[in-house]
Amino acid sequence: MISASVQNSSFNTHYAAEIARKLELMRAALSDGVTGLRLRGTDWFSWATAGATHTVLLAAETGAAEILVTAEGAWLLTDEIEAQRFIDEELPGRDESAGGYKLFAHPWADSTARDTFVQEVAGGGKILSDKPSTSSDFTELPIPASLIAHKRVMMPSELERYRLVGRLASEAMTEVLLEAQPDWTEYQLAGAGARAMWARGLHPALTLAAGEKRLPLYRHPVPKHEALGRVAMLVFCARGYGLVASLTRFVYFGGLSSEQAKLHQQVREVEAATLDASKPGVSLREVYEAIAQSYTQQGYPQSIQEHHQGGTAGYLAREVIATPTSTDSLAENMVLAWNPSLPGAKVEDTFVLSNGGLENLTLDPNWQSIDVNGRARPLPLER
Questions:
Q1: What is the 8-class DSSP label of residue 137?
Q2: Residues 6 and 96: beta-carbon distance below 8 Å
Q3: Strand, coil or helix: 54
Q4: SS3 for 102?
Q5: pTM recorded for the entire structure
């Protein structure tokens, strides 16, 4: 049964306060001859518009529109191919009448019209951008760290949307792995996963699948035409409102062996140490060190080198990946997606960090779980 989709959410029109606050933050970054801010990336576009999307090509980092903000105005810039769709489907509740964005549309064949408009309204000053252009006739500079930091801390309205995205993503995962068969190929499993996400209004930003043969070999198993066999892993990065929810689950056809059960238990122990270390004010470097120490305690000291372990999430699947030299610190209302793994085992969910602990955004209550350090953690599905 298909759940309510992202598009049908009851809070779709409650954007005004969020956009107003974000316009304040963007305008605060304008100083010292900087008169405008252009946002081209998929992540920044959704952030600035309280969850609208400009995505056409899923694999692209940019889309069919961008955002321009000056001290006096704010615009959604696009071409005449896309203008009516944005008016009808993306701007309601986010447009000028709601304190948000005006629309500027130019002929699709006139590649200079957009830059000309930007120069006019920005008065020829410097422009900040998440993707600074080197070909413009005017200077574009990177976004300051202060604004980037704001993007990585979720507002209450963003968390409300994130909870919906996480719930729908976890329901899609459960649906697919209850249907999966050992004679399916990895392509079929990944395709079923993408279908289940699309059916709920989510973009399948990433769908990895591995069966019995390839699962122990690769940490990032891009699906192949290989039968699943006795076990399968499915990985989602599901995007809704621009927010990305990540999760990994396993299915075993015929049950786990004692060796497989132990491997999953060990990776859950590594994750428990990771989650225990994830607190406001703690640096990503400190969490990384806790992960490395736990791998060593489990007898796998090299595993910290065999895959990245995750980090902060949000409008990107990973905003910042933890490394031994990370200087970023965790803060309340940041979102985390850790993914510790061993050959043939992995655990991954998406959490929001608060002073009260960690809230799991992607754990389907219908999926069997086990308590680990006071948290419900997913078990492999045995069928």
A1: S
A2: no
A3: coil
A4: strand
A5: 0.96
